Amino acid sequence: MRTKCNFLFAAVMSCLVGPTTTALAANPAPAQQVQIVAEKMCCQGCARKVTAQLYAARGVQSVSVDMPTHTLTVTLPQPSAVALGSLWDAAEKGDGGPTTMVIGDATFSFSRAESSANENDPSRAAAAPMTIAIDNLHCKGCAQKIAAQLYATKGVNKVSVDMQQGLLHVEAGPDSRLSPWALVDAVFKAGERPLSVTGKQGELSIAWATPAAPKTDDPNTQANLSQPNAQGIQR
User: Angle of helix 81-93 relative to helix 44-55, nearest 10 degrees?
Assistant: First the structure.
């Protein structure tokens, strides 16, 4: 009897799991291409070194190299901003000297701060306040939406907003390390477009090839613009 029950259980699970597993396998996440300009990649040996570091990054499916333009094309499924940060770090680790990274209509560049204080105590630099510039921060409702995603980011302790300048100021906890790429990821999750993240680590900039979509004016949210420019946003 026990053998028969086990057989029936296995048959039922096969019916439930089998089609789903097959469907997932038949519809994998669409791959996207990221182009990285690595100005220090000047020979085949350099290219192999950078490529090896990129393949070590999670999710990378393929890497191709165009030596004349110092460009690497990386294929991976639906990269988040955090994943893009990993690619940038990999290109740096491989001594490629990345200058820009392009995906879709967004061009990323990251200039690290050249400060001896940051090098001697990186935890202090990581915990320092960071400022995020938003493309067309339309209303306080938009700011609240971004802040909710920022607060969901590990290490974020406080978020304040300057509506007039379109800026959000982010403070980390005393023992926390914040990545500018993680903050950009939070803004993307809120459905908004970041322009830059600046702090003692340096500046992460995003240039957009297309203008931001216009937002509908809402009298209820426009009234919030009359509030003081710098406001704290609570959890």
Answer: 140
